[in-house]
Amino acid sequence: MNRQDFLGLSTQEPHRVVSFPASQSLHVSSASVNGAISTGIPQLDEAIRPPSPEDVLGRTRCAGTNGIPCGHVTEVFGPPGAGKTSLALSIATSALRNEDKVIWIDTGSPLPKVRLASMLKQSLDATSSDTPEDPIKNLIYFHAKSLPHLLALLVRPPNGFPPRDAKLLVIDSISALFPSYFPNPSEFKSRLPQSGVTDKTQIQWLMNRKWNVTSDLGNQLVKLAATHSLAVLLVNQTHTRIKGQPRATLCPVLAGGTWENSVYTRIVIFRDFLPEDDGDSKGVRFAEVMKRAGKALTLRLDENIVPFKIETDGLRGIHKSSSPIILPQESAETTLSASQRKRKVDEIADSQDEDSDGEFGWVESDDAGLSDGE
């Protein structure tokens, strides 16, 4: 019997070398990944999945393929208190609800087990499917006390890690341990005279050590995700970057060329302003997909920005009646020209006796209002 295998190649002649298109091989490799894990917000699940040729107008997508993809690395970053851990808990709840094993590694903040159990209970009560009595038993918890502990667990994992039936690996947060071991360049240069290091080669190696460790960590996470069909979820913190930016910008702590290639999907969580006439704007967060299917999204489209709220029983997506107010980006040349403009000599007051109140719109009659307590 002439049986066809998964690639569509005939197995009647086993010693024959058959060539097939690279697109077919890519389709097979992507099909081997076991679906995706829902974020708990259907709109965000839809925004994460890239459009495919199979999508037909009027045909709904398969729910099992919406969410963070298995076999790849997903990064979530945002300012403190934006809801990064809440999104990670929601994704872990979706995996535990489907009887999948979840590995949670924390590097500082302990796992909120009470909240996770509450979210899982509410999720199970909302579904009528048969589920185990205590699915939280499928949660495997690790606490990484230092960066060497985290690197040893991921780069040189012990036997049986990760388990074969594990579906999700969460690291909260992947960047928390780096500042204590790798200070910023200005602080590092100030410590060099005290350390007595004068060799330029050694100084350059010390300066690049953070990026070397970050690259090795990113490559190892990609390897774990691909070989074990894991959905790796990384919570990344932010810092303020001023150099080379038109204004102060929040950027991920862990970045770089190799790290960028390791991240398959990137989601940023933030708060923003809504129009004043929107009555449901209190406590609204936004999750924006910035990278999808390994490609950065340069245009900020409305369908990639999903508003949601954090509630006691999980995350709730809200109706997108209005979009957040996105300030237009100013060019760096305009910002620099405005900041470098200097006043003329005759514009600078020589003493405090000169009348310069008119420059600021201050009128003498305003003093009377202050004295009357208005």
TrEMBL record:
The keyword Plastid does not apply. Pfam families: Rad51 (PF08423). Residues 348-374 have a biased composition (Acidic residues). Keywords: ATP-binding, DNA damage, DNA repair, Nucleotide-binding, Nucleus. One of its GO terms (cellular component) is Rad51C-XRCC3 complex. GO terms for biological process: meiotic DNA recombinase assembly; reciprocal meiotic recombination. SMART domains: AAA. GO terms for molecular function: ATP binding; ATP-dependent DNA damage sensor activity; crossover junction DNA endonuclease activity; four-way junction DNA binding. The keyword DNA repair applies. Residues 33-238 form the RecA family profile domain. Coiled coil: none annotated. Its main location: nucleus. Gene3D superfamilies: P-loop containing nucleotide triphosphate hydrolases. Residues 329-374 are annotated as: Disordered. It is found in: Nucleus. PANTHER family: DNA REPAIR PROTEIN RAD51 HOMOLOG 3 (PTHR46239:SF1), DNA REPAIR PROTEIN RAD51 HOMOLOG 3 RAD51C (PTHR46239). This is DNA repair protein RAD51 homolog 3. It comes from Petromyces alliaceus.
